[in-house]
From TrEMBL:
<keyword id="KW-0472">Membrane</keyword>
<feature type="transmembrane region" description="Helical">
    <location>
        <begin position="287"/>
        <end position="307"/>
    </location>
</feature>
<feature type="transmembrane region" description="Helical">
    <location>
        <begin position="20"/>
        <end position="45"/>
    </location>
</feature>
<keyword id="KW-0675">Receptor</keyword>
<keyword id="KW-0297">G-protein coupled receptor</keyword>
<feature type="transmembrane region" description="Helical">
    <location>
        <begin position="327"/>
        <end position="351"/>
    </location>
</feature>
<protein>
    <submittedName>
        <fullName>CCKAR</fullName>
    </submittedName>
</protein>
<feature type="transmembrane region" description="Helical">
    <location>
        <begin position="137"/>
        <end position="156"/>
    </location>
</feature>
<keyword id="KW-0807">Transducer</keyword>
<dbReference type="InterPro" id="IPR017452">
    <property type="entry name" value="GPCR_Rhodpsn_7TM"/>
</dbReference>
<feature type="transmembrane region" description="Helical">
    <location>
        <begin position="96"/>
        <end position="116"/>
    </location>
</feature>
<feature type="domain" description="G-protein coupled receptors family 1 profile">
    <location>
        <begin position="37"/>
        <end position="348"/>
    </location>
</feature>
<feature type="transmembrane region" description="Helical">
    <location>
        <begin position="186"/>
        <end position="211"/>
    </location>
</feature>
<dbReference type="Pfam" id="PF00001">
    <property type="entry name" value="7tm_1"/>
</dbReference>
<dbReference type="GO" id="GO:0016020">
    <property type="term" value="C:membrane"/>
</dbReference>
<dbReference type="InterPro" id="IPR000276">
    <property type="entry name" value="GPCR_Rhodpsn"/>
</dbReference>
<feature type="transmembrane region" description="Helical">
    <location>
        <begin position="57"/>
        <end position="76"/>
    </location>
</feature>
Length: 378
């Protein structure tokens, strides 16, 4: 390729890259928020909240997977957007896609493991639970499955030549070479991947629906018992003066006032206890609601990508027929799955009060340390 062809390729690449400016802005935000948020989650849950709790066990591991998935996917997509037709190197392409796929798939399968663990704990509290051994076994299994799913993509991801007939120049793209590998093997792998993704989504929805139903039943029964106790206490309080008058009319006036006052104080105390009991029950289920929200975020971020994938299966030249702005929009949809790895730290912060408190204390201590260092050097 002579200098003129190099210049043509650079001009063509720069022209196409302008279509991805909006995508690049979002990817930059994904990268910054995802790395920062997941690093904070790993530090807080692993070192600041040292008390090992069953509900929190999987959170640091999920944060590690989200961290790698967000960092690798966002960086790779950003590089592809900056070099839409000038991404050279088949080996580099394969090497960059493999850890991206492994971390993303691991995160997805771990969500399923967490949903099953929550289902057993909430819906089958007296049945077999996930012991530490099984938790570790499932963690290992998620990585092994992710590697197994990602190995075929080592062969499918490649440097793809794209030609510009107008300028008579050839560029390169790093992606799945659909036209080259379109056939029984590729279609089988893709269909299995789509079915697996929708199966995990369905399993998450079923588990979360059953968990939500059980929490509703428990809460409703708890409130019903509290209401019945309040009614019983109210009846006792209202009938006590009449009972005293029938038993001892001479002392009923003084005793009834004293006993009624005592009962009213007891009722007030019991009412406060009932309110605290309801709050405690709601607080106990916060991790279930938290993981439900994470599952919903995963489904929302992945469904558009799967729809695009299913549409493209009907035509191996689907992406080649799209205009540059449309390709940028399709790329934006594909990049949306990174949201699943970015929003989780914010979901933790919304539902886990202890996590918010420890995070705040951590940053306060950091600021105080910085101030002391400044004073020393001054």
């Amino acid at each position: 390729m002579n200098t003129s062809d190099d210049d043509k390729l650079i001009d063509w690449n720069n022209e196409l890259s302008t279509n991805y400016i909006v995508n690049d802005v979002f990817l930059g935000l994904y990268l910054i928020l995802g790395i920062f948020g997941n690093v904070v989650v790993i530090i807080i849950y692993s070192f600041r909240m040292k008390k090992k709790k069953d509900d929190r066990y999987f959170i640091p591991f999920l944060a590690v997977m989200d961290l790698f998935a967000c960092a690798s996917r966002s960086s790779l997509e950003l590089a592809m957007n900056i070099n839409p037709v000038n991404f050279r190197g088949s080996e580099m392409c394969k090497a960059l896609w493999f850890p991206t796929n492994v971390s993303a798939v691991s995160s997805i399968f771990l969500l399923l493991v967490i949903a099953v663990q929550r289902y057993l704990k909430i819906c089958r509290p007296f049945g077999p639970q996930m012991t530490l051994f099984w938790k570790q076994a499932f963690l290992l299994a998620t990585v092994v499955i992710a590697v197994g799913f990602s190995i075929p993509l080592i062969f499918y991801n490649d440097e793809i030549e794209v030609k510009n007939s107008t300028n008579n120049v050839t560029g390169c793209v790093c992606d799945v070479d659909v036209e080259r590998y379109y056939g029984t093997g590729f279609l089988t792998y893709t269909i299995i991947s789509i079915i697996s993704s929708f199966s995990i989504m369905l399993a998450l929805m079923i588990c979360n629906a059953l968990i939500g139903r059980q929490i509703y039943i428990q809460t409703k029964a708890k409130i019903a018992r509290i209401n019945q106790n309040q009614i019983n206490r109210s009846r006792v309080s209202s009938t006590l003066p009449l009972v005293l008058m029938n038993i001892a009319p001479d002392i009923s006036e003084n005793v009834s006032v004293s006993e009624t006052t005592k009962l009213n104080n007891n009722n007030l105390t019991n009412s406060e206890t009932d309110t605290k009991s309801i709050r405690k029950m709601s607080f106990a289920h916060r991790y279930s609601f938290m993981f439900m929200a994470i599952g919903i975020a995963f489904i929302i971020s992945y469904v558009p990508r799967l729809i695009v994938l299913m549409v493209s299966l009907r035509d191996p030249k689907f992406f080649g027929k799209l205009s540059p702005p449309t390709l940028a929009f399709v790329a934006f949809i594909r990049e949306m799955n990174v949201v699943n790895n970015v929003v989780n730290p914010f979901i933790y912060g919304f539902f886990d009060r202890r996590f918010r408190k420890e995070t705040k204390n951590c940053f306060v201590n950091m600021n105080e340390t910085e101030c002391r260092c400044v004073m020393i050097f001054e």
